[in-house]
Amino acid sequence: MSFIKDNLSRVLERMDQAASKAGRNPGEVTLVAVSKTVETARIREAIEAGVTILGENYVQEAREKIDEIGHGVQWHMVGHLQRNKAKHAVTLFDYMHSIDGISLAHEIDRRAAQGGEKVRGLVEVNLSGETSKFGIGPDAIMDLIRHIAPLEHISIEGLMTMPPYFNEPEKARPYFIRLRELRDRIRGEGIEGVRMDELSMGMSGDFEVAIEEGATMIRVGTAIFGERRH
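Above: the chain's sequence. Below: its structure in token form.
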């Protein structure tokens, strides 16, 4: 068994165990294999091992990989999206995890309309208040979602967050709980055109805790591909 195939098998097993521990159906959790800085040969190896969704952080890097690998798999934008890259992002990605502002949402909507696309995505929430992280603050999210809801070419399907880095996964649990509670509160508003089905939270170091707290998408890179080069 190859290094990547073995790692993927371990991740899937851990996902199943975490879901079972929480009384959840493992099929409710989607794995996004984050391939940032990973060369295409290793990405192909992951696809052959069963990966069906790849997550990228940068538009230019993703474009080069998509040109080579194609759309036999889904490509998710999991990094910060600059407004001036929206034109390219709407044609490259099947899903966006990091919609975090009104101007970006309007630009995505405009660009998607030009291509006859409808972008599926998530609103990124900065729950930690760290200035080094992107995302809308929890106090401002309802206003953002109400602005996005009427846009015809964006479908908001849930929320995404990145907690602070901790050596102990349990320390991330309060952030995952807060995102789930925020999702439930937004869902309770019944905003037309807004679905709150997805929670993208949890990475290599803490995805089991995230699954226990309701994650429907986890973004895992290192645990599959190994330590990335910078």
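Residues 3-225 form a domain with the TIM Barrel fold (CATH 3.20.20.10).
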